[in-house]
Amino acid sequence: MVRKIAFGFLWLGFITYAFFLAPPEQPGTFELIKNLSSGQWQGVNPLVIALFNLMGIWPLIYSAVVFIDGRGQKIPAWLFAIASFAVGIFALLPYLALREPNNKFVGKKNALLKLLDSRVTGVVLTVATVILVAYGLKGADWDSFVQQWQTNRFINVMSLDFCLLCLLFPALLRDDMARRSWNPQFFWLITLIPLFGPLIYLSVRPPLQEVGVESISKQPAVN
């Protein structure tokens, strides 16, 4: 219950900050988003380009866990995962608040779960992230970025969204490791490496074992 309340307050707090306390919206924000989305990056700070594209990587990282975690939830996890592609942590925080602990996987993996569970997916996301980070750091204009962070709501909130996505991934990690019977000692190693820790985890985690519902029901009850 404490966990649910904490995530709920964090969600409300971030919404309050984004709409009432963050720097004001700047003219040209819509044009900037359109250019970032369409690949028209001339004159745009490489740090902003990298950050914007990494905000597309993070929902994929979370989806590789959330869609699997959702198999044992009463709420439709896929809805929150898909919404995160548009609004990031704003969509995932309600899921983290509403979900129940779930360290078992029951049933068969469909085509989507097989893709998300594949180590190849983790490797592809890792390579894409390395390219984006290298691109952003190589041409980075830090002074411009800091100024934009202080004065532009879009840049400010997107940056904080990115940080929260890094910080909150461990909320799903422990159960995902338990579903795979993976050594929990690796939890902190993955957690303490922002962004690349989760990516490495997706690249090396053991695949889920499919367990039929009938086999679960046949297990003897524990008195």
Short recap of the structure:
The chain is mainly α and 223 residues long. 71% of the residues lie in helices and 0% in strands.
Which regions are unreliable across 5 or more consecutive residues at pLDDT < 50?
214-223
**CA-atom Rg in angstroms:** 19 Å
Name the structural class. Answer: mainly alpha
Q: Quickly count the helices.
A: 13
Q: Span from first to last CA?
A: 27 Å
Proportion of strand residues: under 5%
Helix residue percentage: over 70%
**How does the overall form come out from the CA principal axes?**
globular
Major sheet description: none
The whole-number mean of residue pLDDT values reads 92
Walk me through the structure.
The chain is built from 13 helices and no strands.
Task: List its salient traits.
223 residues; mainly alpha; 13 helices; disordered C terminus
Please write out the topology.
Layout: H1 2-21, H2 29-38, H3 46-69, H4 77-87, H5 89-98, H6 111-117, H7 119-138, H8 142-151, H9 153-168, H10 170-179, H11 186-191, H12 196-204, H13 213-217
Helix pairs in contact: 1-5, 3-4, 3-6, 3-7, 3-9, 3-10, 4-5, 7-12, 8-9
